[in-house]
Every structure is written in structure tokens, then in C-alpha cells.
């Protein structure tokens, strides 16, 4: 597990620093376009205290797309209609209440961070779940709810009347996922500060995939992918960054295991 959740470099501190234990877990629904053409149309969040496991302070707001047309596919997913957005505040006003934290988490943090542009530390629950639950068959949010599985009973009242892909619904599920992920990974850490440092490092790295998403070994656990195929991935130009990172990671581990096997002392002879 330590190689899946490695220690992060820690700068020496003259005075002890008490880590922030409350994470704002946030989700964003958009008009469904590329970043430069997109518009946020809904934000939802809850706060999670990693020290106690308490999930609280649910917030949600629609936001005016500012004339950006909603992609039909995105509308089918989140089911937010033009009528629902009538009278919604502009994005700059809608996002303001969510900006009071400095520690955020989201299921695909790079997406939400790029749309919301909120300053602070961001944790990616997708990348963390890949480290905590590599054997789960899929790592989309609702797949993790089903296959980990996640107990949503304490957030059920706030889920009532909502559905997946509404911002608050997904934020609540993501908070439960982060709580469960922390419970899985925290025992490997010295303390909460160590966990947060490791989680930030993992969140800033490419995803360490559990299975390849393409090619002749699509869907096969990485441990079962032949070494020569991983070597091909590393050599291939313009390779997907997550696949490249994953291939290099596993090739290094396989090489280290071979070195360790060679260096292992021979059994004593009688």
C-alpha cells in the first residue's frame, strides 16, 4: 500500500502547524463545452471534517450561463432546463459563498478547479480512489458508490429529491467517498497532516490507472498486462499521460522486484 500512497516530502517547520481538517467537497455542472467555451450552471458542496467524519453545511446554487447554449448531451445528463436557470445569479455571484475554504476536493478535481477557479489546495477523489480501491471494477463516482460500496445513509436526507449529476447530489456522494478513502489510507500515514500531504501529491500527479482504457489489453488489471506491452506504451509518442505514468510506475516496480529477488540472500546450506 505504501507504494500506492507514497510519503510526500515535508519541509521542516520551526513551529508546529495544525492541519486544516475540514474539506469543502464540491461539484460543478456546466453547459458541456470545452473549457474556453464552457459556462458553470450549477455548484454544490458540503463540508467534510476528516478528523470526525462529519458531513455538514450543504450548499447549492444555480448560475446563469450568460448566453452560452447548453450542450444537448450535457442537458440529458444533468437535466437542468433553461426554465430552471431563469433568474439564476451570474457565475461571479453564485460562486462567492463557496470560496470561503482553502481546502477543496472533487471527483475530477482538474475539471472543477478549471471551471470554478477557486484558490487553495485541491484533492482529487478519483485519483485517491484509484490508490485506495485499485480492485474496484470502475472508478466513476456512481460506480464507486455501488462497488466499494459506500454507505450513504447519513446523507440520505440531503439526497432526497435529487439525482446523480446534480451538483449537490454528486458533492454528497463524493464527500462519503473521500471519508471512506481516508479511512482506507489514513492507517498508512503518521497523522492527518501526513495524509493531506500524500493526498495532495497524488492529486497533482497523473492518475495511476488500475486498468488500461484502450488497446488489446483494455480492461485488464495492470498487474496482468505483459511487460513488453508496458514498454511499448512508454515508447509510443503522444501517449495518454495517465497510461504513460501508469506504465512507468509498474515497470519500475517490476524491475525493483527483480533486483530484490537477485539480491535476496541464498539459504544457508547444512
Quick rundown:
This protein has helices at 72-78, 82-85, 91-94, 109-116, 125-132, 141-147, 156-159, 167-185, 192-204, 227-235, 241-263, and strands spanning 22-30, 40-49, 55-62, 103-106, 121-124. The protein has 270 residues and is of the alpha/beta class.
Layout: helices, strands, pairs:
Elements: E1 22-30, E2 40-49, E3 55-62, H1 72-78, H2 82-85, H3 91-94, E4 103-106, H4 109-116, E5 121-124, H5 125-132, H6 141-147, H7 156-159, H8 167-185, H9 192-204, H10 227-235, H11 241-263
Parallel strand pairs: 1-4, 4-5
Antiparallel strand pairs: 1-2, 2-3
Index terms:
single chain; 270 residues; alpha/beta; Nucleotidyltransferase, domain 5; 2 domains; five-stranded mixed β-sheet; 5 strands; globular; EC 3.1.11.-; RNaseH_sf
Fold and architecture overview:
- The chain has 270 residues and is of the alpha/beta class.
- It has two domains: 22-204, 2-Layer Sandwich (Nucleotidyltransferase, domain 5), CATH 3.30.420.10; 222-263.
- It has eleven helices and five strands; from the N terminus they run βββαααβαβααααααα.
- The protein has helices at 72-78, 82-85, 91-94, 109-116, 125-132, 141-147, 156-159, 167-185, 192-204, 227-235, 241-263, and strands at residues 22-30, 40-49, 55-62, 103-106, 121-124.
- It has a five-stranded mixed β-sheet with strand order 3-2-1-4-5.
- Strand 2 (40-49) and strand 3 (55-62) form a beta hairpin.
- Helix 6 (141-147) crosses helix 8.
- The model has no long low-confidence stretch (mean pLDDT 93).
- GO terms for molecular function: 3'-5' exonuclease activity; nucleic acid binding.
- One of its GO terms (biological process) is DNA replication proofreading.
- One of its GO terms (cellular component) is cytosol.
- This is Exodeoxyribonuclease X.
- Its EC number is 3.1.11.-.
Amino acid at each position: 500500500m505504501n507504494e500506492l500512497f507514497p510519503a510526500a516530502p515535508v519541509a521542516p517547520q520551526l513551529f508546529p502547524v495544525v492541519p486544516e481538517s475540514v474539506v469543502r467537497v464540491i461539484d460543478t455542472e456546466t453547459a458541456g463545452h470545452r473549457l474556453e467555451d464552457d459556462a458553470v450552471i450549477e455548484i454544490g458542496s458540503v463540508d467534510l471534517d476528516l478528523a470526525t467524519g462529519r458531513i455538514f453545511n450543504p450548499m447549492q446554487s444555480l448560475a446563469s450561463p450568460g448566453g452560452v447554449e447548453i450542450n444537448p448531451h450535457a442537458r440529458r445528463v444533468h437535466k437542468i432546463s433553461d426554465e430552471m436557470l431563469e433568474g439564476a445569479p451570474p457565475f461571479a455571484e453564485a460562486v462567492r459563498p463557496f470560496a470561503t475554504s482553502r481546502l477543496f476536493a472533487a471527483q475530477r478535481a482538474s475539471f472543477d478547479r478549471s471551471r470554478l477557479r477557486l484558490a487553495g489546495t485541491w484533492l482529487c477523489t478519483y485519483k485517491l480512489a484509484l490508490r485506495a480501491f485499485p480492485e474496484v471494477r470502475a472508478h466513476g463516482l456512481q460506480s464507486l458508490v455501488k462497488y466499494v460500496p459506500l454507505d450513504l445513509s447519513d446523507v440520505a436526507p440531503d439526497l432526497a429529491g435529487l439525482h446523480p449529476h446534480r451538483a449537490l447530489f454528486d458533492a454528497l456522494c463524493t464527500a462519503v467517498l473521500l471519508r471512506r478513502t481516508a479511512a482506507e489510507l489514513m492507517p498508512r500515514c503518521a497523522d492527518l497532516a501526513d495524509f493531506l500531504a500524500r493526498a495532495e501529491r497524488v492529486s497533482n500527479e497523473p492518475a495511476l490507472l488500475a486498468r488500461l482504457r484502450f488497446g488489446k489489453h483494455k480492461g485488464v488489471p495492470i498487474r496482468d498486462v505483459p511487460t513488453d506491452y508496458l514498454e511499448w506504451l512508454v515508447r509510443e509518442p503522444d501517449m495518454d499521460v495517465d497510461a504513460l505514468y501508469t506504465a512507468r510506475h509498474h515497470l519500475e516496480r517490476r524491475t525493483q522486484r527483480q533486483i530484490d529477488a537477485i539480491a535476496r540472500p541464498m539459504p544457508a546450506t547444512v
